[in-house]
Amino acid sequence: MSDDRRGLGRGLDDLMAQNEMDLPFLSAYGPAFDAEEDISQAKIPPEEIFDAVVRHLRSLGCKIDSVEDRKLTVQGLIVVTDEEGVQLIFENEVRLPFVPSDLASPGLSEGQIDKDGCRARVMIQAWGIEARRCLSRFIEHVNINDDE
Fold first, then answer.
1. Helix pair angle (129-147, 46-59), 10° resolution
2. What pTM was computed for the model?
3. Where are the alpha helices (DSSP H) in the chain?
């Protein structure tokens, strides 16, 4: 079917010409990378994230008796608060249930998994579903492997 019969009124040249006119107007909003940080998830104080981690771990059935200096250890998980967020350090004898993309989800940063897959670390910078999922997956993994 020819372009005339389909009723295509604009070609690539027309679209490119239109974009050349629109781009100066759009650039008035500034570069995308400057706005990206403001648009991303709201910054939550690390102390509040730590409290949310503790509540979530308790809801998963973890016994947390004491918390000293915003640091705790439970079932192979070390949780430490610092200025950037809450650092999670996972250790297990069996390969962890994570792949690198799990530790690069929204709200998480600096995710690393050791080559053998038995140790990982990630920084929570914004509390959300991805952070809860990460913790839940680890605790479930540890509990399943402890039962075997």
1. 40
2. 0.67
3. 3-6, 12-26, 32-39, 46-59, 129-147
